[in-house]
């Protein structure tokens, strides 16, 4: 049963990180490869603040969310919007955004590496302390419990927003056919900014909780989770809220199983293995739908 706690905890970390990435990719067709750097730099920014003052968990979470949202908005305005304006067609824009995201991600990575000399950094200066909780013989930390609750709550809120709100329905229409949505009066730029801000905020929150959970992270930690998030989205299906949740917990279950049955050396290969298998058997993902593009 303790392994089940590990699966739920690890899956929630993946879900919280992958949620924003899935949201932007499935609606506004932006596969943001700078998402990992936003995750890392939000926690790094909070660690810099904590070098000068002592804060509790809530202020640190707010700093992480704010930095993540601002970084994501800046990347959207300065880089991605300019690429979309100048691209010949949709496919060209998607490829250039992917490459541009990789380029943009290097900047915060280089800043953090220079400041830390590529050494781990943490949030130990916070007044918040990680404690273990015992529930029916099972043990879980307060950070892990908060991560599970926050991941599930934000995932449910995002799913309801996309299905029930006017903005969410407009956003989904962009994902189906951006040109027709524009003709119907949908403001793609405004919705894209909102979506990127939400995605950045979730990345920032996950960065803070991840750092509290492990005690520290390195400037390169975001790159590792980026691969995990990509696997979660591909496994579940691009654009599917149910799919990204399934992918996150399925990947976590596979990794925990490998970790408990072996010495752990194969854990990092699980993500790539699942991506390969899903692309062979069901290219659209478990909950994805086939896409038809008219040219």
Q: Which geometry do the CA atoms define?
A: globular
The residue ranges in which pLDDT falls below 50 over 5 or more consecutive positions are: none
- Which class in CATH terms? Mainly Alpha
Would you tell me the structural class of the helices and strands? mainly alpha
CATH-defined topology: ABC transporter involved in vitamin B12 uptake, BtuC
Spatial ordering of strands, largest sheet? 1-2
Task: Work out the helix count.
Answer: 11
> Average pLDDT, to the nearest integer?
89
H/E series: HHHHEEHHHHHHH
Written description of the protein model:
Strands 1-2 form a two-stranded antiparallel sheet. The chain is mainly alpha-helical and 295 residues long. Helix 2 runs parallel beside helix 4, helix 2 (35-50) packs across helix 8 (188-214) and helix 9 (221-236) packs parallel to helix 11. The protein has helices at 2-27, 35-50, 57-86, 90-116, 142-164, 166-176, 178-183, 188-214, 221-236, 241-261, 267-281, and strands at 132-135, 138-141. Helices cover 74% and strands 3% of the residues. A hairpin with a 2-residue loop joins strand 1 (132-135) and strand 2. The chain starts with a helix and ends in a 14-residue tail after the last helix. The longest helix is centred in the N-terminal third of the chain and has 30 residues, at 57-86. The protein has one domain (2-281): ABC transporter involved in vitamin B12 uptake, BtuC (Orthogonal Bundle). The protein contains 11 helices and 2 strands.
What's the gist of this structure?
With 295 residues, this protein is mainly α.
